[in-house]
Design a protein that fits this description.
Bound molecules: guanosine-5'-triphosphate, magnesium ion
Number of helices: 5
Pfam family, one: MMR_HSR1
Mean pLDDT: 90
Order of helices and strands: EEHEEHEHEHEH
Radius of gyration: 16 Å
Number of domains: 1
Low-confidence stretches: none
Helix content: 25-40%
Strand order of the largest sheet: 1-3-4-2-5-6-7
CATH class: Alpha Beta
CATH architecture: 3-Layer(aba) Sandwich
Structural class: alpha/beta
GO cellular component, one term: cytosol
Family: Belongs to the TRAFAC class TrmE-Era-EngA-EngB-Septin-like GTPase superfamily. EngB GTPase family.
Oligomer: single chain
Function: Necessary for normal cell division and for the maintenance of normal septation.
Keywords: Cell cycle, Cell division, GTP-binding, Magnesium, Metal-binding, Nucleotide-binding, Septation
Distance between the termini: 10 Å
Length: 195
Amino acid sequence: YTIKKAEYLLSAAWTSQWPDESLPEVVLAGRSNVGKSSFINTITNVSGLAKVSGTPGKTRTLNFFNVNDELRLVDVPGYGYAKVPQKMIEQFAEMIDVYLTKRNNLKGMVLLVDYRHPPKEDDINMYQYAKYYDIPVIVVATKMDKLKMNELKPHEERIKRDLDFDENDTFIRFSSLKKKGVDETWDTILHLTGL
Ligand code: GTP
Ligand code: MG
């Protein structure tokens, strides 16, 4: 997939600010610090498109990115970050819930998990939530470069087992550092969006 254009569109704090439903969207979810912003920058090949933060939990709104005027990537706040006040967590959870259940142009979810560790309860909940609402999921295992070759397969199996992974979904070994998994990610996104 050739990226001719990739641009930040808008950040939305509530539904009235969401763009129209004319383009297919893929939503990105994952724990804070898992590498979501890096993932966006890597697959669009635009460094600095999404902010990569040393401080976890920076993303606090739904952030929409336009790709080739053909589809949108939607970055949701990283979950599992304890220092965010409970009230804020609830508001974001509600917005994400509305987005996942009501958005007509939502074609799938990219769930980013840290390849090095078994998925956390938040990850499992998010995956099962998507499955409950019949949302196809691409599980992207990030920071693959931090694992040894012989760890890749057992870690993949552990993640799939803990998630109760649906074999109709796709699992992608990914590294922003080494730019691994980019083509496979786009193949899967294009398949989901019907492009
Ligand atoms: P929040 O928006 O704060 O929730 O974080 P995020 O999920 O967007 O993560 P971000 O892309 O900001 O990356 C977090 C940290 O992980 C940064 O220090 C990145 O440089 C690092 N990182 C991201 N992807 C990779 C990767 O593939 N390999 C390695 N080694 N480090 C990575
Ligand atoms: Mg981020």
